[in-house]
């Protein structure tokens, strides 16, 4: 274990790659859980096999996690800077494991939503600590490669999650997809205790509780309003506009308070660096598009395509392999093309794959879907590592936790808004198409309430069609779902295109230096044309 200096800095550990391995395994838990949920959504929506969750409840199962995650990441970064990332990582793992066990035995969607929220709080302690440990404990000559491995942990999680989730759902009840986190958490805890060094914290850092409350409530208002947008007949009703306006006002108050706070949760001085600001926006847009796409892609594979959870998980391995390969290829591409053009290529590739879904239907060959998922994953892999390197290149080590938290929070805020928006589009367009479509059998032959149930979601319609032996009803629901998916995929493609423009314009940094970030003079590494050279 490393020695800690009186200033709180820690020398590089004697086994840096062992530290990276343990930290990546802990980080992978976040992506493992998210990708497992993508496979389990249709089972959770099934009234007989799952909890009979409505589309809005499913959005909250996903959004409760990412909402609390995003809202408390600033606090997680502050705690990592104050008490040291190792301590924060241990606390995050323990909370994540306990909440996973509670969620596995949820008796209704509300219980599961609460458990997912606590899992998000655990992840908020976990994620900024992992990147802070890598930045602070890895020698400079190995740091770029270590960040690439850290970024590729998302690919590993996405790879393992769908396959594990599909296998578990094929043999066990739905709660097993959450219970599987518990033994993994136990192994990670043992690894952190064994090899991760005690990295000193700054005891001057205090927790900004008012700022934390404003950020969580503000994001909650925005997400609630976006979700209600797809569940209401009109977008201008008070159930939609009030939470949107209130959420926006609270977030504006949060930003204003951070500017005056002596110990801000979000250190706005970080955004004085153009590369940090542009990188944050690129990550936000990329993860909005990706999370929204994965949300409707899971329903597409197990709905119109008719794949089982296990087969759907196997198909999604292609995206995971692409993310891993893209993450490993991105440092070399950045050296050849610069980070700016590497990220731009990734945004363009993902945007093209989203657009391709406009030509997908229930007859699309599965190998073609898998090939497109691979391209999409490779594009996402090209984005994460260079953007993270550009963002963190000018951040002083004493603010590594805060910088890591911003890097992480943009991903999670993007994921939260992406799922909420995609879910709203799916729900709204599906209901509109089903309202104008005559249902097979007609209201006279359908049981009371069945017509309304069929128009709630495609999953409910298919379950009803199976019980009533009306295959035409399932076909009608599939056609309505495909129309909704086409609308959602246009939206994700537009986000990727905007991200492409931002990466080309915003990541063009020449001699960018951090400004007023340090209490004492400190010369950060330079980022030329968005390209961070290894030391």
Q: How would you describe what is shown here?
A:
The protein is an all-alpha fold and 535 residues long. Helices cover 75% and strands 0% of the residues. Helix 2 packs antiparallel against helix 8. The longest helix is centred in the last third of the chain and has 36 residues. The chain is globular and about 65 Å long.
Structural features:
18 helices; 535 residues; 0% strand; mainly alpha; disordered C terminus; disordered N terminus
Q: Compute the average pLDDT.
A: 75
Strand content: under 5%
User: Portion of residues in helices?
Assistant: over 70%
Low-confidence stretches: 1-12, 510-535
What series of H and E elements makes up the topology?
Answer: HHHHHHHHHHHHHHHHHH
Largest β-sheet summary: none
- What's the tally of helices? 18
* Total beta strand runs: 0
Report Rg: 23 Å
Q: By helix and strand content, what is the structural category?
A: mainly alpha
Give the CA-based shape.
Answer: globular
Brief account:
This protein has 535 residues and is an all-alpha fold. Helices cover 75% and strands 0% of the residues.
């Amino acid at each position: 274990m490393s020695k800690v200096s009186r200033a709180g800095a820690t020398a590089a550990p004697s086994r840096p790659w062992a530290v990276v391995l343990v930290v990546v395994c802990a980080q992978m838990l976040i992506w493992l859980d998210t990708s497992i949920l993508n496979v389990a959504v249709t089972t959770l929506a099934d009234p007989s096999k799952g909890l009979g969750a409505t589309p809005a409840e499913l959005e909250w199962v996903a959004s409760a996690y990412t909402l609390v995650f995003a809202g408390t990441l600033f606090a997680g970064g502050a705690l990592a800077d104050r008490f040291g990332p190792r301590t924060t990582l241990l606390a995050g793992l323990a909370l994540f494991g306990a909440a996973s066990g509670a969620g596995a035995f949820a008796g209704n969607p509300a219980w599961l939503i609460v458990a997912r929220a606590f899992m998000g709080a655990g992840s908020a302690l976990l994620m900024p600590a992992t990147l802070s440990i890598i930045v602070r404990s890895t020698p400079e000559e190995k740091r770029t490669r270590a960040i690439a491995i850290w970024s590729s942990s998302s690919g590993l999680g996405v790879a393992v999650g769908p396959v594990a989730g599909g296998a578990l759902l094929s043999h066990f009840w739905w709660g097993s997809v959450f219970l599987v986190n518990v033994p993994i958490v136990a192994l990670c805890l043992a690894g952190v205790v064994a090899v991760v060094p005690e990295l000193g914290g700054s005891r001057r850092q205090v927790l900004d509780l008012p700022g934390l409350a404003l950020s969580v409530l503000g994001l909650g208002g925005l997400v609630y309003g976006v979700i209600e947008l797809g569940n209401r007949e009109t977008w201008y009703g008070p159930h939609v506009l009030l939470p949107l306006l209130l959420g926006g006002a609270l977030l504006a108050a949060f930003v204003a308070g951070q500017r005056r706070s002596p110990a801000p949760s979000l250190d706005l001085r970080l955004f004085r660096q153009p590369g940090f600001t542009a990188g944050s926006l690129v990550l936000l847009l990329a993860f909005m598009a990706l999370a929204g796409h994965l949300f409707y892609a899971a329903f597409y594979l197990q709905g119109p395509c008719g794949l089982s959870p296990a087969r759907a998980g196997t198909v999604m391995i292609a995206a995971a392999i692409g993310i891993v390969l893209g993450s490993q290829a991105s440092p070399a591409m950045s050296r050849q093309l610069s980070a700016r053009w590497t990220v731009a290529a990734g945004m363009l590739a993902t945007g093209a794959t989203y657009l391709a879904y406009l030509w997908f239907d229930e007859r699309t060959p599965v190998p073609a879907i898998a090939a497109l998922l691979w391209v999409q994953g490779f594009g996402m892999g090209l984005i994460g590592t260079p953007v993270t390197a550009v963002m963190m290149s000018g951040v002083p080590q004493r603010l590594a936790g805060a910088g890591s938290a911003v890097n992480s929070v943009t991903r999670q805020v993007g994921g939260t808004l992406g799922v909420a928006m995609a879910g709203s589009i799916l729900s709204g367009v599906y209901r509109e198409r089903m309202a104008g479509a005559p249902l097979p059998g007609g209201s006279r032959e359908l049981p009371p309430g069945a017509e309304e149930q069929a128009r709630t979601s495609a999953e409910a319609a298919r379950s009803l069609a199976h019980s009533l032996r009306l295959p035409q009803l399932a076909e009608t629901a599939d056609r309505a779902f495909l129309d909704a998916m086409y609308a959602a995929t246009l939206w994700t493609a537009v986000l990727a295109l905007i991200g492409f423009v931002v990466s080309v314009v915003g990541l063009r940094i020449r001699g960018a230096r951090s400004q007023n970030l340090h209490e004492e003079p400190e010369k950060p590494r330079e980022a030329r044309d968005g390209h961070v050279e290894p030391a």
